[in-house]
Write a structure and sequence with these properties.
With 101 residues, this protein is mainly α. It contains 3 helices and no strands. The termini are far apart. 54% of the residues lie in helices and 0% in strands.
Length: 101
């Protein structure tokens, strides 16, 4: 079976929309509609990433974390910047960009 990244992307965008709508109309902290939309969004993202990998040998720079993955989160205070993992701009990078503008 050939992966269809375009179809997976359409599903991912729809999952983002459903998550936004569920979040905007939630009825409490653990609203089951939001939880379901969260899970569907994570599944749709993983399906897109897998389809992209199968079709083109490429992946997104993103990763889905669940509540059990807290230990795997990158420590943004570590000094090893050669890990190849993008974790956003740190304060020094942001200040340099502002000065250049």
């Amino acid at each position: 079976m050939t992966a269809d990244p375009r179809g997976a992307l359409a599903s991912l965008l729809s999952a983002f929309e459903r998550h936004l709508e569920a979040s905007a109309s939630k009825s409490g902290e653990d609203d089951p509609t939001v939880v379901a939309a969260y899970d569907d969004l994570a599944d749709a993202f993983e399906a897109y990433d897998d389809a992209l990998l199968q079709a083109y040998g490429e992946m997104t720079p993103l990763q889905v974390y669940d509540d059990g993955d807290d230990d795997e989160l990158d420590d943004h205070d570590d000094e090893d910047r050669d890990s190849g993992v993008y974790s956003g701009l740190d304060d020094a990078d942001y200040e340099e960009d502002e000065e250049e503008a």
